[in-house]
Amino acid sequence: QVLIDWINDVLVEERIIVKQLEEDLYDGQVLQKLLEKLAGCKLNVAEVTQSEVGQKQKLQTVLEAVHGLLRPHGWVLQWTVDSIHGKNLVAILHLLVSLAMHFRAPIRLPEHVSVQVVVVRKREGLLHSSHVTEELTTTTEMMMGRFERDAFDTLFDHAPDKLSVVKKSLITFVNKHLNKLNLEVTELETQFADGVYLVLLMGLLEDYFVPLHNFYLTPDSFDQKV
């Protein structure tokens, strides 16, 4: 669900809503849009493909672009065109976790998630099944690199009860500066969401003035907030 919410957040401007990973991602359409948005690129693929051949060709192009980004950084590629198109949920999850970590997605994936996969092989005319454990996530340090961790990660992991104290301290700090403009913050999450207070605060901290015509003082759409 964390990955679904992340995808929908990234693609909100595309008016794409993912509800089920294996059903919505197998044909390459959503993966194409996701990669283009994350990487800031444009892939040379057909927008809509109904045939299986066309879908696999699109997937091939998308995954080649993904591999070009991930392979130099040592990611183990645990998916193929056939596994994604075959709606293999484990392969799709491997792909999405790698993308989320590579692009530093603002999400917190649960650690040490693994699944039991049934592997069926045919030997001497008989089918033999075995169970294999697939690890989808390890620790945040191993997936992101220890250098990516900061004080807030430590706070969330080891002292979540102290979060309210930190928020109060930040509100005090913010108001110390915004009060100069007769503004006051009581809720960081809501009052900083549209970017207005953030622009004003940055100007106060760095001692510069942002012309009011350069941004919307009362934004009412996503584009205006961005």
TrEMBL record:
<dbReference type="InterPro" id="IPR036872">
    <property type="entry name" value="CH_dom_sf"/>
</dbReference>
<dbReference type="GO" id="GO:0030032">
    <property type="term" value="P:lamellipodium assembly"/>
</dbReference>
<dbReference type="GO" id="GO:0034446">
    <property type="term" value="P:substrate adhesion-dependent cell spreading"/>
</dbReference>
<dbReference type="InterPro" id="IPR028433">
    <property type="entry name" value="Parvin"/>
</dbReference>
<protein>
    <recommendedName>
        <fullName>Calponin-homology (CH) domain-containing protein</fullName>
    </recommendedName>
</protein>
<dbReference type="GO" id="GO:0003779">
    <property type="term" value="F:actin binding"/>
</dbReference>
<keyword id="KW-0677">Repeat</keyword>
<dbReference type="GO" id="GO:0030018">
    <property type="term" value="C:Z disc"/>
</dbReference>
<feature type="domain" description="Calponin-homology (CH)">
    <location>
        <begin position="1"/>
        <end position="104"/>
    </location>
</feature>
<dbReference type="GO" id="GO:0005925">
    <property type="term" value="C:focal adhesion"/>
</dbReference>
<dbReference type="GO" id="GO:0030027">
    <property type="term" value="C:lamellipodium"/>
</dbReference>
<dbReference type="Pfam" id="PF00307">
    <property type="entry name" value="CH"/>
</dbReference>
<keyword id="KW-0963">Cytoplasm</keyword>
<keyword id="KW-0009">Actin-binding</keyword>
<comment type="similarity">
    <text>Belongs to the parvin family.</text>
</comment>
<keyword id="KW-0130">Cell adhesion</keyword>
<dbReference type="GO" id="GO:0015629">
    <property type="term" value="C:actin cytoskeleton"/>
</dbReference>
<keyword id="KW-0206">Cytoskeleton</keyword>
<dbReference type="InterPro" id="IPR001715">
    <property type="entry name" value="CH_dom"/>
</dbReference>
<dbReference type="GO" id="GO:0071963">
    <property type="term" value="P:establishment or maintenance of cell polarity regulating cell shape"/>
</dbReference>
<feature type="domain" description="Calponin-homology (CH)">
    <location>
        <begin position="164"/>
        <end position="226"/>
    </location>
</feature>
<dbReference type="GO" id="GO:0030036">
    <property type="term" value="P:actin cytoskeleton organization"/>
</dbReference>
